[in-house]
Amino acid sequence: MLLEFEVENFRSFADPMTFSMIASSDKSHADHLINVEGSKDLMMRSASIYGANASGKSNLVMAIGMLQTMVLRSHLAQLGEPIPFFPNRFGKPGGNTRYRVAFLSDGVEYEYAVRHDAVRILEESLYHYPRNRKAIIFERIAGQDLRAPQDNGSLRAIAEKTLPNALLLSKAVQDNHAMAIPAFRWFQERLMVVLNINSLVVEERALARMQQDERFRSFLLKALSMADIGIVDVRGKIVHMDQEELGRMPPEIQEQMRGMVNGKIEHWRRLEIKTIHQARDDDGAPVQVEMDFHGEESLGTQKVFAVVSLILEAMEAGRVLVMDEMDLHLHPLIARFLVEMMNDPEQNRGNAQFVFTTHNTNLIDLDLFRRDQIWFVEKDEGGRTRLYSLSDFNVRKDLRVQKAYELGRFGAIPFVRGGKVVE
Question: How far apart are CA 228 and CA 26, in angstroms?
């Protein structure tokens, strides 16, 4: 369960900005909230993020994904290997990036923070709140001793072996340190960050789940039917490609694939997916028509398949799903259908959470969201992203918030100058 995420000096985020899934005092849509043992706060089931193009929406998703990647893979770092570092380019040169995330894992609240530059971890801390009281698991500052009051000496020994460019949390889990494992598992098992929804990985994952879990397959096909895209079945397989098949592809595609799989031919693969549509022939008799998923289905249909599969998987496991441009290529009514599914406690019984960026202003609706479920990002004149919520404004319950947003009342919209481009 995600509580808060804070980022500083990452891409367009220069100043510290905090995104929160903790509910405000708003009394509307109480069924959109989750009451979880281990936290005194109520959490929201979903949140939408709006803003103009290049305002920083994707950067927020990328920041969450970057922290997750660092936690899961930092122990693999070699001595002297640079840390992925993307500071704000519009401010003063130098500086360092900081992430902080608060979350619930196994009924206990945790807070994890990292500060780093391109070559070393400058600060790292992990706290937990057993019985709602803050307690240190560890605090690590470059050039200073480790602070770990509950440690019996084993964590200190691990810290002494941790490279300056590696995270102690990652290294401690590799050494099977019990106090680090619950926090690490949240990043590994509960957090899903998706920047490219129409990807081979997402489709392959959905296909595997459909083949392994009949219940998941039934729900996915039912959702596709309810979305009115005419699909009654989906079949597919993974095809491993040989050198001959690869050779028939354009050179630029071959080069892209080599970059994706480190040049190992045995890992080159593609998905062969067929969709089955129910139709009628010229005599009115029912027939089934098979179509190639990638070659004949629209981008919208491909997107619905990917998004619904991710939502169902998150609901089943109670995960936090963070998606960039969730409803790109989707009809507004389908996007609304998906949001209603996220917010419905009878369907979302696993208390999954959904965070997504969107340009769909039809979803800025107080009949669909609470005020604290609607977020905005906006760049100032210095190129720095500001992050804020609709709940920061004094908004009447009967206000047409979509119209107010489009008129610029809440900011976070592009100011497009009129005039002729071609004269």
Answer: 34
Looking at residue 135, its amino acid is A
In 3D, which of 362, 327, 374 has the Cα closest to residue 49? 374
- Complete DSSP assignment for 300-324: HHHHHHHHHHHHHHHHHHT-EEEES
Residue 2: name the closest of 24, 28, 22, 16 by CA: 22
What secondary structure, in 3-state letters, does 66-125 show?
HHHHHHHHHHHCCCCCCCCCCCCCCCCCCCCEEEEEEEEECCEEEEEEEEECCCCEEEEE
CA–chain centroid gap for 220, Å, is 20
Q: 286 CB contacts (<8 Å, ≥6 apart)?
A: 278, 279, 280
pLDDT score recorded for residue 263: 44
Question: What is the residue-averaged pLDDT of the chain?
Answer: 91
Element (H, E) at 230: none
First-to-final CA distance of the chain: 55
Question: What single letter denotes the amino acid at residue 227?
Answer: A
293-317 confidence digits (pLDDT tens): 989 999 889 999 999 999 999 999 9
| 390 DSSP 8-state letter | G
Specify the pLDDT at position 257. 54
Strands 46-50 and 353-357: parallel
Highest CATH level, class, for 1-195+324-423: alpha beta
Which residue ranges make up each domain of the chain? 1-195+324-423, 198-240+268-317
Cβ–Cβ < 8 Å for 110, 183:
yes
CA 326 to chain centre: 10
CA dihedral 252, 258, 259, 261 (to 10 degrees): 140
CA–CA separation, 74 and 168 (whole Å): 9
- Give the full edge-to-edge strand order of the sheet including 231-240: 231-240, 269-280, 286-292
Neighbours of 210 (CB within 10 A): 20
| Beta carbons of 348 and 311 less than 8 angstroms apart | no
Put simply, whether the predicted model's pTM sits higher than 0.90 gets the answer: yes
CA–CA separation, 55 vs 99, rounded Å?
A: 19
